[in-house]
UniProtKB/TrEMBL annotation:
It comes from the Bacteria. PANTHER family: OUTER MEMBRANE LOLAB LIPOPROTEIN INSERTION APPARATUS, OUTER-MEMBRANE LIPOPROTEIN LOLB. This is Protein containing von Willebrand factor type A (VWA) domain. SMART domains: VWA. It comes from Gloeobacter kilaueensis (strain ATCC BAA-2537 / CCAP 1431/1 / ULC 316 / JS1). The lineage of its organism: Bacteria, Bacillati, Cyanobacteriota, Cyanophyceae, Gloeobacterales. Gene3D superfamilies: von Willebrand factor, type A domain. Residues 210-369 form the VWFA domain. Pfam families: VWA_CoxE.
Length: 373
C-alpha cells in the first residue's frame, strides 16, 4: 500500500470514527492516533443513548475536559478547533469549562486548567469568566511562588522599601504592610491576628543606571506555555530596581502591557491566542522604546515562524544589533525549555548577531543579570 493510500485511509478513519477500523484496517500512530482519540472523546457520545459524558483516551492516560481542550488546540488547525468547540457546547452540552460556574468553582488549579481557560475564555459568560479569573489567580500565585526565588536570586542586593517582592525571605519581611493588609483577619476574642498574606520588600543591586528590558511575546497558540511563563517572569522582573521592564504581546499587532506588567493575571486575561504572526513589526516597536541602546536588552519570545515577509524581520533585527542593543531570541521560556521552532529563521538571526536559546525563567534571570553587571 502506498503512503498516499495509507494517508487517505487514515483520514477516512478520522472522519468515520469508531468501528471504521474493521473496514479500513491498519493502525494509526503518532499524531494521527492522538487525533483519533481526541475525536472519539467527543463524537463517541453519538452512540450513547443518553449522551452521558464519557472520558476518552490520550495515550495511556484518561482525558479530563481541560486536557481535551488543550489537546484539540495542539492537534488541529483553527477552523477545526472552532467546529469541535461548537459541537462540544451546542451538540453534546459539554459545559464543564465554559458555562457551569459550580463545576468551575470546584476545579483544582493547575497549569493544564489555566491553559484551557485561556483557550476558551472567548466562550465564557461574565459569571463564569469571573470564576475563571480566580482560578487563573491561584495558578499564577503557585507559579510566582515557584519562580520568584530563582528569578530574583541573581539580582539580590540592598532592600528597596518602595517595591513589593514575591521572594519570601525573613530578612525582607515587611511587618507594617503585612499587619495593615491583614487586619480583617483579626480575632477580637483571642486578640490574635491571623496572617493570610505576608508581604516582603524587594532588593536591588546598587547601580546608578538602570537597564531597559523589553520582553516581546508571540501569542500564537503554539506558544501558550511561554506566554504564561513570560507574564510571570516579567512581573518578577518588574520588582527588580536595576531593571526597567517593558512587556508587549504580539500577533499581527503589538499590544504594550508595560503599565500592567506587575499583574500577570491581568496580562494573561488580555492575551488572544492564535492568529497571524508579524515578528518584524514587534521588533520595530521594541526599537521605538529603546532609549540607550547599549543599556537595552530585547527578549523576543517566539517560535520564529514568521507570517509577514521575512526580510523585514531580518532588517529590524539587524538594526537593533548594530545600534548596540542586546537581542535574545527565546524559542521557549517555560519549566521544560524544549522548543519546537523554525531553525532556519533562528539561524539567520544568529548570523546577524542575535543570540538564540531556550530557557527556564531562572536561566533567563541569570543571563540578564550577567549582561547588566
Amino acid at each position: 500500500m502506498s503512503d498516499l493510500e495509507r494517508l487517505r485511509r487514515a483520514r477516512w478513519r478520522l472522519i468515520l470514527g469508531s468501528g471504521s477500523e474493521a473496514v479500513l484496517g491498519g493502525t494509526l500512530d503518532g499524531t494521527l492516533q492522538q487525533r483519533e482519540q481526541v475525536l472519539a472523546f467527543l463524537y463517541d457520545r453519538e452512540y450513547q443513548p443518553q449522551r452521558n459524558v464519557r472520558q476518552g483516551d490520550l495515550g495511556e492516560s484518561r482525558l479530563s475536559v481541560p486536557e481535551w481542550i488543550n489537546a484539540v488546540h495542539e492537534l488541529f488547525p483553527k477552523k477545526t478547533i472552532e467546529r469541535l468547540e461548537r459541537d462540544a457546547l451546542d451538540r453534546y452540552q459539554i459545559e464543564q469549562m465554559v458555562t457551569n460556574p459550580e463545576l468551575l468553582s470546584r476545579a483544582q488549579p493547575s497549569e493544564a486548567l489555566l491553559k484551557a481557560v485561556l483557550r476558551t475564555r472567548h466562550l465564557m459568560n461574565q459569571q463564569v469568566l469571573a470564576l475563571a479569573r480566580q482560578l487563573v489567580q491561584r495558578v499564577i500565585d503557585q507559579l510566582l511562588e515557584k519562580f520568584a526565588r530563582p528569578v530574583n536570586q541573581p539580582f539580590l542586593g540592598a532592600v528597596d522599601r518602595r517595591r513589593r517582592s514575591y521572594l519570601k525571605i525573613a530578612g525582607n519581611f515587611d511587618a507594617r504592610t503585612t499587619i495593615r493588609r491583614n487586619l480583617r483577619t483579626y480575632d477580637p476574642s483571642s486578640r490574635r491576628l491571623f496572617i493570610e498574606t505576608p508581604y516582603f520588600y524587594s532588593r536591588v543591586r546598587r547601580q546608578v543606571d538602570r537597564w531597559q528590558l523589553i520582553i516581546l511575546v508571540d501569542e500564537s497558540g503554539s506558544m501558550i506555555d511561554s506566554v504564561i511563563h513570560a507574564a510571570v517572569t516579567a512581573a518578577i522582573f518588574f520588582g527588580i530596581r536595576s531593571l526597567r521592564t517593558h512587556l508587549c504581546i504580539f500577533d499581527t499587532a503589538v499590544v504594550d502591557l508595560s503599565d500592567q506588567c506587575s499583574d500577570p493575571v491581568e496580562t494573561l486575561m488580555k492575551v488572544q491566542l492564535g492568529g497571524g504572526t508579524d515578528i518584524g513589526q514587534a521588533l520595530a516597536y521594541a526599537a521605538s522604546l529603546v532609549e540607550y541602546p547599549r543599556r537595552a536588552i530585547v527578549v523576543l519570545i517566539t517560535d520564529f515562524y514568521e507570517g509577514a515577509p521575512l526580510q523585514r524581520l531580518l532588517s529590524e533585527a539587524k538594526k537593533l544589533v548594530e545600534s548596540g542593543v542586546t537581542l535574545l531570541g527565546l524559542a521557549a521560556l517555560d519549566a521544560e525549555a524544549k522548543p519546537t521552532y523554525d531553525r532556519d529563521t533562528a539561524q539567520k538571526l544568529v548570523n546577524l548577531g542575535a543570540q538564540v536559546a531556550a530557557m527556564t525563567p531562572g536561566e533567563l534571570a541569570a543571563w540578564v543579570a550577567e549582561k547588566v553587571r
